[in-house]
Amino acid sequence: MSKTAEELKELGNKAFGDKNFNAAAQYYSEAIQLDPKNHVLFSNRSASYASLQKYEKADSDAKECIRLDPTFVKVYYRLVTAQIGLKQYDLALATIRQGLAVDNDNTQLVKQQRMVQQLKRSHEATVKKRQEQASKTTTTTTALSSTTSMPSGSEQFSSNSELQEIMTQYTQTKREFETEKINLSKLEREEKITDLTRQELVPLPEEQRCYRSVGKMFLLSTKEQVIRRLDTTIQESQKKQDELQQKIAYLERKMQSQQQNMVELQTQTPAAE
Fold first, then answer.
1. Is the pTM of this model over 0.85?
2. In sequence order, what are the beta bridge partners of 209?
3. pLDDT in 10s for each residue of the chain, 273 residues
4. Rg, C-alpha atoms of the chain
5. 71 φ, ψ to 5°?
6. d(Cα 149, Cα 255) in Å, to the nearest integer?
């Protein structure tokens, strides 16, 4: 016997509560086919897609829900969650203002507003830092490489203090991530300079004597000794670069996990309506 849209919605709510978001989205999709004017179904499926990090689909469903019922305040929360996932912070703030116009005392939207403002400031600071770093690089002969840099649950998460703690951890991790990227770029530049020095020494006569630095002193050495020392320096630099690249990759994964945790807090309200 075929199930009704309401029955499919209840199955979707149960799957969502069990954190089976693929199944939840499928149930809501089947319900929407039977009841395409039901705004709650689109809101619930938006929450499922956000938990699967399918933010474009979550965004689309939330907007359709608003089109069907612009007074349904919970969907503004859903739309902001999708826009955070898409890093559309200005749009997220505009959506929050739109939602607060419907319910100006909505505490979840107020919490989201503070979170989005902090994420936006962090994002802008990162962009500014990269622009400043890129500007410095144009004055040298070396190009600075720059790599560009939630989730689930129907249960309520503890409190705003938990969100604040995650946001603080995210900011600290991001700062460390950017610092290590700068350190990596510095090592890459130093290795390039060392390699250029080595290339200039290679054509010189074997009996050529050269000065090499040892701390604050310079020692007169043979060409072979200097080249050997330069080779050692390059090898040590490459080893440090490998270690930094691994650390940067780890920090990037850590940031993604922390951001996912923040989005999980945005999907803390139950899908069921």
1. no
2. 222
3. 688 999 999 999 999 999 999 999 999 999 999 999 999 999 999 999 999 999 999 999 999 999 999 999 999 999 999 999 999 999 999 999 999 999 988 988 998 898 888 888 888 887 777 777 766 655 544 444 443 344 444 344 444 567 677 778 888 888 888 888 898 888 888 888 888 888 887 888 877 777 766 666 677 778 788 788 888 888 888 888 888 888 888 888 888 887 777 776 655 555 556
4. 27
5. -95, -5
6. 9
Query: What's the token pair of residue 132?
Result: 């400043």
Q: Whole-angstrom Cα distance, residue 105 to residue 267?
A: 19
Cβ–Cβ < 8 Å for 102, 76: yes
Size of the chain, expressed as the number of residues it contains? 273
Tell me how far apart the alpha carbons of residues 106 and 95 are, in angstroms, rounded to a whole number: 13
Closest CA to 66 of 115, 99, 97, 114: 99
